[in-house]
Structures
1.
Amino acid sequence: MTYPSDPNRPEFAFGARARQSPYFERARSAGACMYTLYNHMVMPVSYGQPGAEYDRLMNHASVWDVAAERQVQLKGPDAQKLAQMMSPRDVAKCKTGQGFYTPILNKAGGVVNDPILLKLEDDLLWLSIADSDVRLYAMGLADAYDLDVEVSEPDASPLAVQGPKAEDVIAHAFGEHVRDIRYFWFIQTELQGIPVVLQRSGWSKQGGFEIYLRDGSRGAELWDIIWAAGEEIVGEPWGPGAPNAIERIESGLFSWGTDFDEQNNPYECGLGKWCKLDGEHDFLAKAALIRIQEEGAREALVGLQLNAGEPLPSVTKPMPITDASGAVIGTLRASVWSPRLNKNIGLGRIASAESGLGNTLKADLGSGVVEATVVGVPFA
Ligand code: THG
């Protein structure tokens, strides 16, 4: 045997540093053929049928292995105190059984992550994180501030069902009561004896749920139950899917590490609306955010319409945005061809002064320069 089996197709070594999800084998069998690494876990991003995958999400429903949306668990008397140090939202306002989308900020105001916070108990919180090492940041704070809290990664692995028929699929599997679950709220329950948290959430705007499996040894079992429910409710169009690069740009869902990172403050990456500076609560970044507000953010995250008559290749790394004079005033972070809008669209971070709706700029895609118009997000 030779390595790799095909010299033109380099292979990837799985292992302790590139972990497999509890759904790994099932996703493979369903045709997963391209992966990314996210929170030190491999995550399927494609099943090789981009048209069908988009159609399932927009018109039917699909099941996604998003176990790489790992949880950071804060447990103990100071769990809320630690969460509040990192969050510009008022964590006390999050009820037990509720989820809050919140930036996680360092003292300078840098966006360390943008998780959903789940309050399971007053002294038991989960941060359902994007791709950065929040656990280590939280451990550092807990140590430095001598907090009475245990920071860990629990055995909790989300499986998403997304699309307009997702609620019917979940109701078929769990029972009609799940239709009453409000957006970002969740229940702790069992599905045929498998312990799960069921939340109305998911990284699409097409509706759906995420099932956080609380026993990683039962991934195949959970997948099979959901798969069967999908086949019964959706029928032929049912199938696998993955976080969808097209839909998430159309809908304006953010991707930490793609659109922004800890070099950015929330005001320059569309997260300002989650920062409350006049509340009762205090947090590490508060002074920095007040100063940034006074000075005004240098950049803004904007929607860009790329004016080309044909589908352009997707941008997969930051590309320069220039003004009429050719001066670089920002970067295009991601772009796709939108079948729904029949347009090339993207998200960019550009100088605030240039961010007015309708402003026309240029995007250098490497393969050529196209006109880029600032438009509202979500794209219409
Ligand atoms: N679900 C769960 N964990 C996650 C994600 C998820 N971890 C990684 C990543 N996604 C975290 N980032 C986001 C980004 C956006 C949203 C959720 C998680 C999101 N935003 C909506 C919006 O911006 O319109 C809703 C915000 C609101 O109204 O509160 O859904 O998807 N478990």
Note: Residues 69, 101, 114-116, 128-130, 158, 184, 201-203, 210, 253-254 surround (6S)-5,6,7,8-tetrahydrofolate (CB under 6 Å).
2.
Amino acid sequence: MTEEMTEFDALVVGAGLWGCVVARELAEAGNRVLVLEARSLPGGNARSQIDPKTGIECHCYGAHIFHTSDERVWAYANRFISFTDYRHRVLTEHDGKVYFMPLGLALINAFYGTNLKPADVPGFIAGEVAKAGLTGEPRNLEEQAISLIGRPLYEAFIKGYTQKQWNTDPKDLPSFIIRRLPVRANYDIGYFNDPHQGVPREGYFTLFANLLDHPAITVRYNTDYLAQREAFPAELPVFYSGPLDAYFNYRYGALPWRGLRFEWETKPVRDWQGCTVMNYADASVPYTRIHEFKHFHPEREAVYQSEKTIICREFPADWKLGDIPYYPVNTAASAELLAKYQADAAACPNVIFGGRLGEYRYYDMDKVIARALDQVHAYLAQA
Ligand code: UDP
């Protein structure tokens, strides 16, 4: 292996979004790149595939919607794939009724039975927040949510969902998680605020294939880098996007993740729930949401109109080593553990750690691309 490795200038571990972007940038800068991927296909948890029976593109590890305010990232992604003008909307069921999920006028008026106008919202919310009696900066997810929307809305739409999703008391979770959700004083029911949104017209699997399609990139699938790392020359630069703790043989213990379990079902109807994602806010329902993937692509008319659809129930799950990691569980204890691994990572001069697993971060796809570009360009500038 070592002799053969002299053919390469850099090693990329993991062919998820981060690894694909890094490999591409390295290759375009004139490097010969070897990508090692443990799975049999690229794309990590953002991967999609077409179901052969129905023709429906399914997101294998849960729905992924591309959205960004970063012009550089948007231009970069568009070099490799074009995006539809899909705008994500999320509905949520609470206590047997369905609401539009962005915390905005549609939800507030439906929930309270009011007819508030945009100008009424700040005063109304301030009144609700005052009733909750919170003072000072929010210290956790619960306080952050209550300070944004008041206690009744928090208890209806956030508390149960968050408790299920994280199996952690919202008082022990960081507030940034909830800042992902827009709060609006109008009837805009789009889930994201970013000016650029969509899903890849030809599918996520094509995006990853296109990123890797370069003569200087060699990809080996079903290959576990850590099991054979000794075989690679020590001076070969490594761009590592496997789990950070795995790289160090879990020497301080495993960083905690939240898992997911998906239940897939094909239904003999054209449209089962009428939208891409329906959230289930109540703790009494064991799943957090149901995806109906054909709604991502109404422009694929034959598939969209066919009398078959695929739905997928998403159940949050406890995670143990060996399970697929989905969400890092950011608590005070995991922050302490992470800091130890980060210190060790900083002492590895030839290794650049990145991506959701390599950095142990709750990442949106656009942020992964931005970070990959920054990291690889910093490397190229000094190489
Ligand atoms: N959330 C919630 N109710 C909802 C949707 C989201 O309480 O109906 C909270 C929950 O804590 C969740 C976070 O907002 O973890 C982020 O949700 P989002 O759907 O944006 O994240 P994703 O799981 O898609 O990354």
Note: The pocket of uridine-5'-diphosphate is lined by residues 92, 101, 157-158, 161-162, 165, 177-178, 180-181, 279, 281 (CB under 6 Å).
